[in-house]
Amino acid sequence: MAKKVLIVDDDVDVRTFVSSVVEDIGYTPEIAKDGEEGIGKVKEKKPALIILDILMPKESGIKMYRTLKTDSQFSDIPVIVHSGIAKRTFLRSQKALDEFGDQPVPEPEAYLEKPVEPEELGAMIKKFLS
Amino acid sequence: MSKLLLIDDEEGIRKVFSISLKSDGYDVATAASGQQGIDLFQKEFFPIVLTDIKMPGMDGIEVLRRIKEINPEVEVIVITGHGDMESAIQSLQLGASDFLTKPMSNQLLSIALKRAEERLKTKKTLNNYANDLWNMVKEKTEEIKRRYEFEDKLVQRSIDGIVATDKEENIIIFNPAAEEIFGYTENEVKSAMNAGDLYPEGITQKISDVFSGKNRKVSDIFVGDEASVTAKSGEAVPVRFSCAMLYEGDKPIGSVGFFQDLRGIKRLEKELIKSERLAAIGQTVAGLAHGVKNILNGLKGGVYIVNTALKKGAADWAAENKIDYSKTSALPLQPRSLKRIININNEREHQQKKLKTGWEMVERNIHKVSDLVLDLLSYSKEREPEYEKYNPNIIGDEVCDLMESKAKEYDIDLIRDIDREMGKIYLDPKGIHSCLLNLVSNAIDACIFDSDTQKLWYVKVRTRHENESGVAFEVIDNGCGMGEETQSKLFAEFFSTKGTRGTGLGLLVTQKIVNEHGGTMDVVSQLGKGTTFTIRLPGKKV
């Protein structure tokens, strides 16, 4: 069975687009429209890679990211953050949360700033799954 | 002591009395005859003249007459002969102050002179009083005149129009500023018009009521507020108007009206709104760039999917595998060929699905562009609502029908609270439809965004009467609500809490349409509890 890639994004166009790219390179896309649904899908489908949007309603993107990185059952699934905000802004916000929260959280395995070219996205996915 | 002129033909009398009088302190001059006396008198002024009646040549009566001709204020005392009452009476009639009979006693003379002095003093005092009074009157009159001229200048120079009427409601003051406002000249108004022609409606009736006694003790007829008056040209002029009664004690004697021309201010207000809107449009470009960028990415993505699907078209696939359809119709089919045909069909279906998906993405984003552009145009254009007499409930129902399925999808109860007693009012159906749709869509999103999953979410859409002829639409939700910071940014351009889904202009366009109808919109919200938006429309043509 082809490896599964979980795509978490509140924008239907982004989900459609990334799903298409995943399929084109021979993997199976799974989708979730917010962090809550995303965690559910991770448990259910056990994806080999997660492509995660950050700016989603109710801060579910940030919450899901921190859950993934602090829970031992998920922490070794690679996460590509695919977001409209710049990488350094994201990292700065995480640092601030670290100081407020309990434990520091590792950086994502990869970071892609929207908009991303389909070829670049495809190459990045292949890197993690092959 | 005064100067005194003694006229007597007897030398003895002259000598004796002049000494005696000198010793009394008088400055005495003598004359031996009437003529001499007159000559002396013409050269010098004597306040007191003592003259004998019986003298040769000019007698005392003649002297008296002459002196009185020259100066009627002189005290003339005549000396008559013993028993000569006629002369005495005649002298008194001619204005003599006193008479003494010969032989003259010093005592009586003294008394007479004293009395004469008294009278002189009194006359002088009276004169002084009269002069003082005259000066004072003159001064006060001058002051009043200056005051009056000053106040007249105030009225003439005032930049506000001032109109005053007397108790017959004739116009007695109509200053240059009023000429500017009304377009009539002072003359035109004073001769041919009355207050009713100028004051805003209803005012002159109130004034008449005060004069007729119907309404006593009213001081302010109308206190400074916006009103409209009609100028000579027929133009309606916006003014800030106030009117008061003028009283003298308890009696009304007239009225005064003040008119502040608001045309300049109104023009500035309009320009300010226009320039604010243009500035907002300038800011809009930045927000627009962002919105358009997202949409373009969506379009790009859709195009990519369509292209890939086209590339992997079933025809190509079939060609790659060199399947000759003409041969496959022969029965029975070999299992391997059957499998290949099924695979081809599956693949074709898959690619068609992808084409559909990709194309739908393109369509969606074209919609988004279109929405964005239309919102922007709505917001920036000066537009008159296209009024129709329309039942607002129709709009309520339409919008609810449209949003019902989305509400259901997210487990939100869409409640209709429509007042079935509603009649038709004047509104722009398309405009109000888009306003209500905006509010309901926002309310549904508020529930979707709400993190409190224990809630039973609802969105209530209510129509009801407001005042006499107006109508109100209420959209009530129990979703995530808004904090103070969000509420303060509510009507800022391109502010959206909805990420890529909102244009950021929705509420602004709604507010603009409501304003164009002459209506109002307000919001009450509590973070975590919910929000209520209310649109109030006057119902009449504006």
Task: Describe it.
- The complex is a heterodimer of chains A (130) and B (542).
- With 130 residues, chain A is α/β, with parallel strands linked by helices.
- Chain A has one domain (4-129): 3-Layer(aba) Sandwich (Rossmann fold).
- Chain A has 5 helices and 5 strands.
- A 5-stranded parallel β-sheet of chain A has the order 2-1-3-4-5, with helices on both faces.
- Chain A is globular, with a radius of gyration of 14 Å.
- Chain B has 4 domains: 3-128, 3-Layer(aba) Sandwich (Rossmann fold); 158-261, 2-Layer Sandwich (Beta-Lactamase); 269-380; 388-537, Histidine kinase-like ATPase, C-terminal domain (Heat Shock Protein 90, 2-Layer Sandwich), CATH 3.30.565.10.
- Chain B has a 5-stranded parallel β-sheet with strand order 2-1-3-4-5, with helices on both faces.
- In chain B, strand 9 (236-248) and strand 10 form a beta hairpin.
- In chain B, helix 3 (60-70) runs parallel beside helix 4.
- Chain B starts with a strand and ends in a 5-residue tail after the last strand.
- At the A-B interface, helix 1 of A face helix 10 and helix 13 of B.
